[in-house]
Amino acid sequence: MRRLDQGSSSSRRGRGRRRAGKWLLGLLLLWGAQACSFERRAEPDAEPAEGNGGLPSPSAELPGAETRVAPLETVELFRASVAIGDISLALALLDREATLVDELVGEASEAQTRGELLLELRRQHASGLVFEPLEAPTVVTLSESALVITHFAAVREGEGGARQEVGQVYETVFLLASPDGWRIRHMHRSLLSAR
Q: Which of 50, 58, 90, 174 has the greatest number of beta carbons closer than 10 A?
């Protein structure tokens, strides 16, 4: 009889473990479902593109992009809007989760909102800061993302035509396509100070 009782006790423990395991599995599935955004992904083309293993060419645009502003034009519009002080337009060109790091307006580790950073950059432009491209920008577009890399000379223009070289700026901008056009997801500017 004793053996029978031990067997039923271990049977209860096994059921409890299975029940706990099912509960844990359900919890993990629920957590994973909440973490997933269920975004619709672009469907692959039936026929691969020629020449590069099925990948679109780096300069390829999104289907239907004729009506959209190109990634480079979006970045240039963003720069111009900050330079003239149209911060609302600059903010509209940013993705909701955009990250901006700009060494021209302080340390990269300083915590600032996007608006504060753009206002400080606007103050820099108002005091005579000008970007002059040193070479043509590099633009890589792939499916629904784009990368724009630009190399500038940063110059501060003073009164009477005086110009002081601040340094060289390397700007990297990562953009994502949205139904409203390209939006800046990440922008990083590094400053190499003039000696």
A: 90
Question: What pLDDT is recorded for position 41?
Answer: 43
Beta strands in 72-162 (DSSP E): 94-102, 129-133, 138-142, 145-157
CA distances from 152 to 63, 127, 132, 139, 189 (A): 31, 18, 5, 15, 10
pTM assigned to the model: 0.60
The Cα–Cα gap between 137 and 100 comes to: 19
pLDDT digits over 44-97, tens only? 444 444 443 333 333 444 444 343 579 999 999 999 999 898 999 999 999 988
**CA pair distance 186, 175, nearest whole angstrom:** 7
* Chain CA centroid to CA 19, Å: 43
For the chain, the domain total comes to 1
CATH classification at residue 73: 3.10.450.50
40 in any annotated domain: no
Residue 156 tokens, joined: 């501060």
